[in-house]
From TrEMBL, chain A:
This is CRISPR-associated endonuclease Cas1. Keywords: Antiviral defense, DNA-binding, Endonuclease, Hydrolase, Magnesium, Manganese, Membrane, Metal-binding, Nuclease, Transmembrane, Transmembrane helix. The gene is cas1. One of its GO terms (biological process) is maintenance of CRISPR repeat elements. It holds the Pfam family Cas_Cas1. The chain crosses the membrane at residues 44-70. One of its GO terms (molecular function) is DNA endonuclease activity. Homodimer, forms a heterotetramer with a Cas2 homodimer. InterPro entries: Cas1 (IPR050646), CRISPR-assoc_Cas1 (IPR002729), CRISPR-assoc_Cas1_C (IPR042206), CRISPR-assoc_Cas1_DVULG (IPR019856), CRISPR-assoc_Cas1_N (IPR042211). CRISPR (clustered regularly interspaced short palindromic repeat), is an adaptive immune system that provides protection against mobile genetic elements (viruses, transposable elements and conjugative plasmids). CRISPR clusters contain spacers, sequences complementary to antecedent mobile elements, and target invading nucleic acids. CRISPR clusters are transcribed and processed into CRISPR RNA (crRNA). Acts as a dsDNA endonuclease. Involved in the integration of spacer DNA into the CRISPR cassette. CDD domains: Cas1_I-C. Its EC number is 3.1.-.-. Belongs to the CRISPR-associated endonuclease Cas1 family. The keyword Metal-binding applies.
From TrEMBL, chain B:
GO terms for biological process: defense response to virus. It holds the Pfam family Cas_Cas4. NCBIfam families: cas4. Its EC number is 3.1.12.1. The keyword Manganese applies. Residues 11-188 form the DUF83 domain. Belongs to the CRISPR-associated exonuclease Cas4 family. It comes from Blastochloris viridis. Mg(2+) or Mn(2+) required for ssDNA cleavage activity. CRISPR (clustered regularly interspaced short palindromic repeat) is an adaptive immune system that provides protection against mobile genetic elements (viruses, transposable elements and conjugative plasmids). CRISPR clusters contain sequences complementary to antecedent mobile elements and target invading nucleic acids. CRISPR clusters are transcribed and processed into CRISPR RNA (crRNA). This is CRISPR-associated exonuclease Cas4.
Length: 344, 217
């Protein structure tokens, strides 16, 4: 199995990154704080004001190591990459498939709905006794309705628009009971429906940040496998949007991001102190909280699971890579469909 | 031979004779998984691939010599060609440097034979033999370019040329001995690609829906 390479997140304001031989060196106030061999790094994410030397930028680009700049709030700013890699025949196959995307979308939406439902089932199984009876029956009802949507998506005919509609319907059902999965009494940590740009509560701020991290990994996985991150199947093309990276992310969101958000809150690794509210109601993670989240994210990516289709044990952090690879194999004619990732 | 606007690299033939799919994954899909074996091979080649010429006792030793064959649509660079003075001229004798030991399959011989076919076309003189230099016995193994080897080399060049022209990657066929030592096994996935993904999806979802009594993940 391919190695899960490190993603280096640099969040210290004013930190400097430079190249020294075949190593990346991170400095703060002129003192060396970290030294990593370049061949152990999969990508570098710099958050806020971080200085990166031109020699290091060149070495990263040559080595196919993505360099991503995020602003202090974790929003995407820029990405530095080397020459376009991969295979033009694969990209053409991707563009052709994007004209008739129905079966690929069916795989993506099936797995997304199945994995959302699995998140709810898992919460019922692990903490069902803690639920107030009416909340418990609400979550159980959502599980059942998601099963109906899953059956429809997987086994009934329907074009891409029908599938997109089912995906939206499932998301509404799922997020309608998401607050019931939060087990801390703090009123500032309640989930009040999905909001973004800007997130209007702490849970949304946390989800948005985790989705940014996951998008980054999915984009890197797409590029590493020679796919065009901008040409999607479920997501329509829109200039500047990494539609395919967003597609790749859909099946993984419930497990890699949503469950991590829940456990950070439920295990009280994050509390109200970790969020700040701006004028106008936007809620942001504090710098310290972002470090907590990044550490938990890196740890979560190391957890191993058996990949049902490939039939090998792989860390969760490699799942975007495996899925991009399987999609590429489908597009090149090796596989009769795109095998989605079901959380088991 | 299908019409091609780009010649095929001689070095691709060693992949093609080992496994046409491996060659397609490397040269058409542009997938390259560097493992320990290929990394060592690269270091060895960096040393051999410094152009130069030395002359000793009637043998001209030319390193990093560019080669081509219009007939077979091949191009490449020979590690070393010895031009040996005999009678009315020089006979070329290609030498290719290889990591490890002599192998049971004929990939290295085919690569060397392709160099010989290029040299014959370029010099207009027969090239009857050459040698593979293996790093592990640190010794040359002589290779005779007989009719069998020439046919295998030409057939391989033709089959691979057709794939490249069509941009096609052939399906995986699991062959334990070869697949296990292949550096591309994790991108080829010879076992997974033999499965039906449609069937996998249907069964996985049926199992999830049957499992409604809360077994879940």
């Amino acid at each position: 199995m391919k190695k899960l390479l490190n993603t280096l997140y640099v969040t210290t304001e004013g930190a400097g990154l430079r190249k020294d031989g075949e190593n990346l060196v991170a400095e703060v106030d002129g003192a060396e704080r970290a030294r990593l061999p370049l061949h152990r790094i999969g990508s570098v994410v710099a958050v806020g004001a971080v200085y990166v030397s031109p020699a290091l930028i060149g070495a990263l680009a040559r080595g196919g190591i993505a360099l991503v700049l995020l602003d202090r709030q974790g929003r995407f700013e820029a990405r530095v990459e080397g020459p376009v890699s991969g295979n033009v025949l694969l990209r053409r196959a991707q563009y052709r498939a994007a004209e008739q995307p129905e079966e690929i979308v069916r795989s993506i939406v099936s797995a997304k709905v199945a994995n959302q439902r699995a998140v709810l089932q898992r919460a019922l199984r692990d903490h069902g006794d803690d639920f107030a009876p009416e909340r418990r029956s609400a979550v159980e009802a959502a599980v059942e309705r998601l099963a109906r949507i899953l059956r429809r998506v997987a086994f009934e005919a329907g074009g891409v628009d029908v599938l997109r509609g089912a995906e939206g319907e499932a998301a509404n059902l799922y997020f309608a009971v998401f607050d019931d999965l939060i087990r801390v009494p703090d009123p500032a940590l309640r989930f009040r429906g999905r909001s973004r740009r800007p997130p209007l509560d702490a849970v949304n701020a946390l989800l948005s940040f985790l989705y940014t991290l996951l998008t980054h990994d999915c984009r890197a996985a797409a590029e590493a496998n020679g796919l065009d991150p901008a040409v999607g199947f479920l997501h329509r093309d829109r200039p500047g949007r990494p539609s395919f990276a967003l597609d790749l992310m859909e099946e993984l969101r419930p497990v890699l991001a949503d469950r991590l958000a829940l456990s950070l809150i439920n295990r009280r690794q994050l509390s109200t102190r970790d969020f700040e509210t701006r004028d106008g109601g936007a809620v942001l993670l504090t710098d310290a909280a972002r470090k907590t989240v990044l550490t938990a994210w890196q740890e979560r990516k190391k957890e191993e699971r058996r990949h049902a289709f490939v039939d090998e044990v792989a860390p969760l952090g490699l799942v975007p890579h495996l899925q991009a690879q399987l999609l590429a194999r489908h597009l090149r004619g090796d596989l009769d469909a795109y095998p989605p990732w079901f959380w088991k | 031979m299908a019409a091609l606007d780009e010649p095929i690299a001689i070095s691709a033939l060693q992949h093609a004779v080992y496994c046409l799919r491996q060659a397609a994954l490397i040269h058409i899909e542009r997938l390259w998984e560097e493992n320990r074996f290929t990394a060592e091979g690269r270091v060895l080649h960096d040393v051999a691939h410094t152009a130069g010429e030395r002359k000793t006792k009637g043998v001209r030793r030319v390193t990093a010599l560019p080669l081509a064959s219009a007939r077979l649509n091949l191009t490449g660079v020979a590690d070393l060609v010895e031009f040996r003075r005999d009678g009315d001229g020089e006979t070329a004798f290609p030498v290719e440097y290889k990591r490890g030991k002599p192998k049971l399959h004929r990939a290295d011989e085919v690569q060397l034979c392709a160099q010989a076919l290029c040299l014959e076309e370029m010099t207009g003189r027969p090239v009857p033999e050459g040698a593979l230099y293996y790093a592990e016995p640190k010794r040359r193994t002589a290779v005779l370019f007989d009719a069998d080897l020439r046919r295998l080399t030409e057939d391989t060049a033709q089959a691979f040329g057709t794939l490249v022209a069509e941009g096609r990657t052939p399906p995986a066929i699991w062959r334990a001995a070869r697949c296990r030592s292949c550096s591309l096994i994790e991108v080829c996935r010879p076992k997974a690609t033999a499965r039906s993904a449609t069937e996998f999806r249907r069964r996985a979802i049926e199992a999830l829906l049957d499992d409604d009594l809360g077994a879940g993940p």
